[in-house]
Design brief:
single chain; mainly alpha; two-stranded antiparallel ribbon; two-stranded antiparallel sheet; 11 helices; binds zinc ion
């Protein structure tokens, strides 16, 4: 009898563990991603510097990385900023790899860990210094994949939250737009250097609302509808189309009706602010 009781109790324990796992799986937010802070800060700093006109000797001007006109004309989930982050990543890896094996092996390990990918046993400073070509190409493939999975979305997340950066980035995009001629891109432009207005997709409107927490980014009025159901909200171009702004997702912010009217076709120049935690 006691054996039956123990077996029964064991079974109950197993069921409880299984239920816990199923429950945890169902409640876990499937979009939640790891934020590998140190790598993200390093790459974000490189992208930031590049947009400010530094590092052009190594990377070339940002405007040359903005060659996908379809992304200037319409919002793509893989935005222009994703393209620039990839350029920085690719060049950074290529330059850094084998001259600084010690640093590089540590960074490659961190990157694989961030992407939840296994770390191969041959990934050692010694092996990298010996320059085994098989290991080099195998490592390059894995690191590219890890960079794509773990670093690009996290760097994008960080920079997409920084309005000072976005305005500077869009100023660079505007330099590129000013070079475009309507005769060459009639579907994308209304006139030379001015992109055609487009209907914004729901995913982008939701993302801007989520990022800006339902607040007008100029006067900080709550336009979520929770405070005032009649509140009018606009998704505004940070650099207006008339000033060679683009329809890339990185060129939008939330404004209330009043601020949208008073801003008109001016470039957004308010300094971003924050509310301290205490
Ligand atoms: Zn406002």
């Amino acid at each position: 009898m006691r054996t039956v009781f123990l077996a029964f109790r064991g079974l109950l324990g197993l069921l409880a563990v299984a239920a816990h796992l199923i429950f945890m799986n169902n409640t876990k937010n499937s979009l939640r991603r790891p934020m590998p802070s140190q790598l993200v800060y390093n790459y974000a700093e490189s992208v930031y510097g590049l947009v400010q006109g530094k590092f052009e000797d190594s990377y070339g001007p940002v405007t040359e990385m903005l060659d996908d006109i379809s992304k200037i004309a319409r919002p793509h989930k893989e935005s222009l900023l994703h393209d620039v982050i990839r350029c920085v990543g690719g060049l950074y890896n290529e330059n850094a790899v084998y001259d600084y094996a010690h640093h590089w092996v540590d960074e490659a390990r961190d990157m694989l860990r961030a992407a939840d990918m296994p770390i191969p046993r041959w990934l050692t400073v010694n092996a990298m210094e010996k320059s085994d070509p098989d290991h080099r190409s195998a490592l390059a493939k894995r690191v590219d994949k890890a960079f794509e999975l773990a670093i690009v979305p996290a760097v994008f997340f960080m920079l997409f939250s920084d309005k000072t950066f976005l305005r500077d980035f869009q100023d660079r995009v505007a330099e590129r737009v000013r070079e475009l001629r309507r005769s060459e891109h009639p579907a994308a432009l209304v006139r030379d250097g001015v992109v055609r207005r487009c209907v914004l997709p729901t995913w982008l409107i939701r993302a801007i609302f989520y990022r800006d927490r339902g607040l007008c980014q100029k006067c900080f009025k709550n336009v979520s509808g929770l405070d005032d159901p009649s509140a009018v909200r606009h998704v505004d171009h940070i650099v207006p189309l008339a000033l060679s702004g683009s329809n890339d997702p990185t060129n939008f912010q939330l404004l209330c009706g009043r601020c949208n009217v008073t801003k008109g076709a001016r470039r957004s120049d308010a300094m971003p602010t924050f509310t301290p935690y205490w």
